[in-house]
Write a structure and sequence with these properties.
Radius of gyration: 20 Å
CATH topology of the largest domain: Dehydroquinate synthase-like, alpha domain
Helix content: 40-55%
Largest sheet: 5 strands, parallel
Order of helices and strands: HEHHEHEHEEEEHHHHHHHHEEH
CATH class of the largest domain: Mainly Alpha
Shape: globular
Number of domains: 2
Strand order of the largest sheet: 2-1-3-4-7
Number of helices: 14
Number of strands: 9
Distance between the termini: 41 Å
CATH architecture of the largest domain: Up-down Bundle
Structural class: alpha/beta
């Protein structure tokens, strides 16, 4: 809620006494948010160590450096301050500060690769400054290996935040592009399992639709007026709920869109939300062949479309068009060519996706399984 950040110092003292603040390289310092947080902590006699080196798509080497700093300084908790990159990096740092191993050892990067589960980590506090990844409510983080261009996850119950302070006022200074990309990420989080999970999860599907409708309504308002507290509050709530696990209880399903996107941003370092928007229409078209009725449901319940003489397949196509119209309205109806990306790495990226996210199979789980041929089809339909 608004102004909840004022309680940070009092709450942190219940967890530890020497926090490492993990944040990005410029934005939190430039906006004054970092100094504000440091001041709140100093007011309760807590002097933090600051690590402000996190890049977008946080690199494994940077996470390792942060973990060493936490150990060397004797920090007893980690605070992730910023967007998803800062919070994901904070999770990695919390893990390696205890394990004393490279973070990539804890990242699942494919069958046959070194993988050591995270058993213990420093306590974690998350303070999001953009409504996007939902990292403040889950137990995972995404790390990029700059040597291999692989982007994969570190997951453990030990990485659930001990505390998250979600104050929408901290998102007032979030730039327009980050605000838009964050909204796309929220939508993607709930639609992934909406399309891939069980068809009998009525309640979970209605919750998902409500979150997507909320983002579609409030994202343009936040773009128009960045200090619109109502819009920012609803987006922050949506971000936290989307990845909290609540909407997927009993529904299951996979995250194929994220798997595809991670390969693209791993190789080309584009923003996560931008990559999701890029690939979403082509993946929807691909998947709708196997489950057109679910896409028709999206059109009816999210975009208020009504169908009379259309076949289920035609209704699905119109529903996907409605999503494309929304993406266009927020300047995120994209093709690879818009980002200066050609097809040179399609084969390599497809191989990476199967290796990391196929979990020993030669395809991604999806109502219409996505093998390498399917990945290339989706990529080519996005050129």
């Amino acid at each position: 809620g608004a102004s909840e950040i004022k309680k940070l110092g009092k709450e942190i003292k219940k967890i530890g006494s020497k926090p490492l603040i993990v944040t990005g390289r410029k934005a939190m310092r430039q906006t004054g948010i970092l100094d504000k947080v440091i001041g709140i902590l100093k007011d309760v006699n807590v002097k933090p160590v600051v690590f402000e080196k996190i890049e977008p798509n946080p690199r494994a080497k940077t996470v390792d450096e942060g973990g060493k700093l936490a150990r060397d300084e004797g920090c007893d908790l980690v605070v992730g301050l910023g967007g998803g990159s800062a919070m994901d990096a904070a999770k990695g740092i919390a893990a390696v500060a205890v394990s004393k191993r490279p973070v990539w050892d804890h990242v699942y990067s494919g069958e046959g690769e070194t993988y050591i589960p995270v058993r213990k980590a420093l306590p974690l506090v998350c303070v999001p400054t953009v409504a996007a990844t939902g990292s403040e409510a889950d137990s995972g983080g995404i790390i990029t290996n700059s040597e291999t261009n692989e982007k994969a996850g570190i997951f453990s119950n030990a990485l659930f935040p001990a505390l998250s302070v979600v104050d929408p006022e901290l998102t007032f200074t979030c730039p327009e592009d980050y605000t838009i990309d964050g909204g796309i990420d929220i939508i993607s989080h709930v639609l992934e399992s909406y399309f891939t999970g069980t068809s009998t999860a009525y309640l979970q599907d209605r919750l998902s639709e409500s979150i997507v409708k909320t983002v579609i309504h409030y994202l343009p308002l936040a773009i128009k007026n960045p200090r619109d507290i109502e819009a920012r509050s609803h987006l922050s709530w949506s971000s936290t709920l989307a990845l909290s696990g609540l909407i997927n209880i009993g529904r299951g399903g996979g995250f194929p869109l994220h798997a595809l996107e991670h390969a693209v941003s791993g190789h080309y370092d584009i923003s996560h939300g931008c990559g999701l928007a890029l690939l979403m229409p082509a993946l929807m078209k691909y998947t709708s062949v196997a489950r057109p009725e679910k896409f028709m449901e999206m059109g009816m319940n999210i975009f208020d479309l009504r169908f009379e003489d259309e076949s289920v397949e035609q209704a699905a196509a119109k529903s996907i068009d409605a999503m494309k119209e929304f993406l266009d309205s927020v300047k995120r109806l994209l093709r690879f060519s818009d980002l200066g990306i050609g097809d040179e790495k399609f084969e390599i990226m497809a191989d990476d996706i199967i290796k990391i996210y196929g979990h020993g199979k030669n395809y991604l789980d999806n109502p219409r399984p996505i093998d390498k041929t399917g990945i290339l089809e989706i990529f080519k339909n996005t050129l």
